[in-house]
Amino acid sequence: MVATKRKLDTFPVVSIILWVVVAILALVWSIPFIFMVFTSLKTQSDIFSTPAFAPPPELAWENYAESIERGNLLNAISNTLIISLIKVPLGLLVASLAAFAISRLRLPYPKIILGFFVLGTMIPIQVALGPLFHIILKLNLLNTKIGVILPYIAFGIPYQIFTLYGFFSVIPREIDESARVDGATNLQIYWRIILPLARPALAALFVLDFVATWNEFAIALVILQEQATRTVPLALQGYNTQFSSSYGPLNAAIVITVIPVLIVYLLFQRYFVQGIFAGAVKG
User: Fold this and answer.
1) Domain extent at residue 17
2) pTM of structure
3) Is residue 9 located within the same domain as residue 106?
4) Within this chain, do residues 28 and 76 fall inside the same structural domain, yes or no?
5) Cβ atoms within 10 A of the Cβ of 112, count?
6) What pLDDT, on a 0 to 100 scale, did the predictor assign at position 236?
7) pLDDT score at 281
8) Cα 37–42–45 angle (5° rounding)?
9) Separate counts of helices (H) and strands (E) for the chain
């Protein structure tokens, strides 16, 4: 009884310590974003006359208007949003179908098939840029959205298949057998049973893949060479020359491009933590 009471007494202390540590880590991770927001709202003179992390004396909202007007930022955001909203769901669909086939169907040598996909996660994108440019050029897809969507899907699905395979393997196979007894086909089992149960993993992969697609630079730099087709990372690279000494508009552009990613995360945060560890028990 005494030992149990001591454990109960120490529990609030441990909980408080953990919350303090989490708060400190959250503050440390938010420091760069706070710096960007403050800098984006300062005039050029305020940036050099006030401390870096000091709030702006006056809110210089004109920095945001200038960054949008001079940097063609809305066009870049539109291009990136279209590419992301096509690539991410399509890539998850292909990856989930492949993971379902490997984990739930009676395929010969499923571990070997999975191993080939795992090898795909080990290929650096930089190694494939030369052959990729040649293929896209031959297909006449240079400076097109489909020209970057196809490589994005190809490089993204190996990791997604590996993750979803682990999650699908945890789901009891008795569910499949019961559904087949009731006359369900493999496609019906996949769509009506497996995908709803895998919602946390799919949500986590959606957020991670959306962020990766939104921030991808190397492939976009090689394929999208015209200003009208540029994505957000390429547009921000252009800001380094246009606003090399205008730090207010530059940071305003960065803040604007972060907002869509934050919105996507907030929409899926309910499943993100649960889904990020999905399939860790069995693989």
Assistant:
1) 2-49
2) 0.86
3) no
4) no
5) 9
6) 85
7) 45
8) 145
9) 14, 0
